[in-house]
Amino acid sequence: MFRKILIANRGEIACRVIRTARRMGVATVAVYSDADAGARHVAMADEAVHIGPAAVRESYLVAEKIIAAAKATGAEAIHPGYGFLSENAGFARACAGAGIVFIGPPVGAIEAMGLKGAAKALMEKAGVPVVPGYHGDDQSPELLAKEAERIGYPVLIKAVAGGGGKGMRRVDAAKDFAAALSGAQREAANAFGDEKVLLEKYLVKPRHIEIQVFADNHGNAVHLFERDCSVQRRHQKVLEEAPAPGMPAEMRKAMGDAAVAAAKAIGYAGAGTVEFIADVSEGLKPDRFYFMEMNTRLQVEHPVTEMITGQDLVEWQLRVAAGETLPLAQDQLAIQGHAVEARVYAEDPVKNFLPSVGTLHRLRAPDENAYVRVDTGVREGDAVTPFYDPMIAKLIVWDQDRKSALRRLRQALGEYQIAGVTTNTAFLMALAGHPAFAEGDLDTGFIDRFRADLIPQQEPAPPEVLALAALAVTLQRRAEVKATTAGDPWSPWAEVNGWRLNDSGMDELIFRERDEDRHCRVEYLPDDELRIIGPEGSLVAEGSMGSDGTLEAVLDGRRVKAGIVRLGDELTILLPGRTHRLTLVDPRRAGDTDEAAGGQLTAPMPGKVVQVLVSEGAKVEKGQALMIIEAMKMEHTITAPARGVVAKLLFSAGDQVPESAVLLGFEVEG
Ligand code: MV4
Fold it and tell me: Which of 332, 394, 405, 561 could lock onto 375 through a cystine, CB 3.0 to 4.6 A?
């Protein structure tokens, strides 16, 4: 076994690899960018090497810097994690050239699977089922049209160099083929520098089912069963589970055998995933699955496989890379129970899943135990930056059966308390609790089909939440008064904002939620009780604030616990599965909302202006697109907050914009 390895990655996967290496007595070296100097993976590793600026192109993607770091620290092997350099054949070759073991498959296997068209042809030859189609070299439009006719509409045009859904076009009838083909070719040329396409029969109800495979350098190969990753949004996986719901044993065996045959056909070694698409228009059938592509790395969703097999796949990777044989043979592997993974992201489902950058002022995760696992790369106080994927954690749950696992998933999601960024936890809870999902009625169109059920409604804070907010503010002011009267002029509350617990036995608080002001009157009753009179009635409240930021309240005799985070006038109230953000408004300034005062629209993150869709002076409707910003390879549309006029444009297409830069001046009508 290696004495020391370097992990060429960041975030949760770097932490995940370090955990297993440490357990195995292998020393670890982390690498980090400027933005990650204080990151969790750096703190966890035995050593760490700085490799450059925050931008991945100048740090985590620079092979030479990583190899130099391995040499400088005496690391014998490099674990690439996923993403970054993990499927870069050039990097794997460079490692070998430097006498360092690449913890991944042979260079030839990475290359064989890199070209999707060639991979399909290779698989077909190895007897692995592929979707009926055409993947020939002749790319003349006439021949392609004839092939489409032969395959039978609907057909799907895919970029040969593609993957991840880029450059795909569905064509339903022969009359649309020529136009769709030239569109797909153009897109493919732009995205991959290769306009070659392949044709496939279009499957109308597909499921994404993938098989985990493992091979060693002694001729052994096994599979560790399947994962179902059908619940995706724009080719991003959202929930993954193992085993696949409703999978017949016969089909599992056929898919496992096909995946092992695929691995053997390319001389595979290490961890790999063979992705299949299953046509479930008539349910799961052993003759209705087709090879899509092979991922030559450890995948994000590997923990669900670990939970149902009891194996540590990173340990397997290290053993195989060190030259050992596979820890177990096929007949020693079995499925136990059911596991589900949810990807907890800093993103706003209401704003079309726009990444939400900011500081994780509070991050409380569910407790880990035999049923609940949390893989994360961030801690409370860390920032979600625009430089990297905004994933906060992977929450993985296990139980004896799927129904129990989903119950645990909902419960664990409800235990998350996150303030400082918007997250998708409510969306994930809605998914995990959706009746159609519970039925196992999955396919890749699931999220789009049930969109309305899944995107959380922005419901106004109920009276109970306003009462919790009022109670928290009042308790804090009391503490503030105590601190000042105790003669501590340095107390943070000694000079807050001119508000004081007044003598009239009553206070007025105004909470702004989005654009609405909610007034609460607080009456001071004996025994530290408060009567809180809100817009929808009154209740009696008392409670205390714990040092961990948990408010333990009694509302009309009912005990309630809530996480409270206060930053200036911003108050976040965290309840199981729900988060409310309120702004405490100074009563003297009540009424002048941002909108009424006219507004400016700011960049959600640093990026580049791709397009300006309006001109100065334009009259626009609420929600109308004004500008498109590209950041982290994603496009974000800046929309009008209300009906009004574009008063001033401050940037034009091609300009770089820093975070929070004012993009344009906006005047609300009326
Ligand atoms: C398909 C398909 C339907 N028919 N191929 C999308 C990404 C790429 N890896 C394969 N993809 C698809 N290929 C045929 N012949 C539908 C998809 C597809 C999809 C596949 C897996 C997971 C999510 C998806 C979402 C949309 C479309």
Answer: 394
